Amino acid sequence: MESDMSVIEKCAEIVDGAALGAFEIPQLTQSADITLEQAYAVQKASVERRFARGETLLGVKMGFTSRAKAIQMGVDDLIYGKLTTGMFVEDGGAINLSDYVHPRCEPELAFLLNKPLEGKVGMMEAYAAVEAVAPAIEIIDSRYEKFKFSLIDVVADNSSSSGFVLGNWRTKPEDPSNLGMILSFDGRPVQIGSTAAVMGNPVRSLVAAARMLATVGERLEAGQVVMTGGATAAEALSAGISVTAELEGLGRVGFRVEPD
Ligand code: OOG
Ligand code: MG
Questions:
Q1: Which of 3, 23, 117, 146 has the greatest number of C-beta atoms within 10 Å?
Q2: Model-level pTM greater than 0.90?
Q3: Whole-Å CA distances, 152 to 5, 39, 149, 214
């Protein structure tokens, strides 16, 4: 039997290769018998492959923090993934579909931290560590065929992390728990929601991020970005569209998809 390490490294090579080459793969769990804990180890090993190519860590993204997302994907456990420099998309910038498998986007609230957060922290402590907030769009791109996966598969695939776009950082509102958000394609709203959809308050997502990272001996660091999770279902991207997300009181953020 192969050692645990070689299974994890092999799985990491598969998901990382698919992300790098923008091609789809069968779900890992069809051929590898891995636990959720091992799936996070695969995620970590795949992100380390990015670091080895010169990318650096920018923060963390949380997933399945809203019912809309859990229902759309059929997975309702909280997950996290890592955000690296290679995933950053400039506000107002453009992406090319050829760099992705079958990308979708979703509107999110992003936090910028000015203090570390580790383990069990309260809501007040967590929000006190937030330096600024920004409207954000996450570009998710599962490497799995048909964008279908189990909890273990999606975690191993860095929770579909693929791109993220951040608007201007703004002074944090006193209460971020019910800010309207609109995702538009070519100026037409395609998803409408509220930050309330994110665990009742996106600060809860930050609390969960600190708690989940602590289980693997990690913590959130000052200067990191935390994407709190899609407040609405994700929308598939197509060539030539322009995407914007507007967050109540926080302005807007957007990007374009290059034409074919
Ligand atoms: C997994 C990532 C979920 C979110 O915001 O809920 C996520 C996926 O839907 O592919 O990013
Ligand atoms: Mg997301």
A1: 117
A2: yes
A3: 17, 6, 8, 19
